[in-house]
Design a protein that fits this description.
elongated, single chain, 4 helices, 3 strands, alpha/beta, 11% strand, 39% helix, 106 residues
Length: 106
Amino acid sequence: AEEFLSSPRLTGTECLILDLYLPGMSGFELQELLNAQHRDIPIIFITAHADESTRDRALKSGAIDMLGKQVRRDALFRAVRLAIQSYAVAHPTPVPPPFLPLTRES
């Protein structure tokens, strides 16, 4: 978590897949810090400790999903697709102005 926070990848990350229990800062602590910094990074939690209250906490704090270990591939792909779509909606790519041909003034 700490390494991610100090990396150049922090800006522009479209999806973050986290375990709840990380060395140092926990996944929830990282999520709270990112929220406090107003960083709209969609988060998917993967954990072996996914009870209903833990899942509710993650989702109420803005996580896209919380998946239990062993993760099914289709569930992970669905969550990643939702995360990337969520990021795209929150960070639309600016559309360049239409091409206007130059005219020669007389």
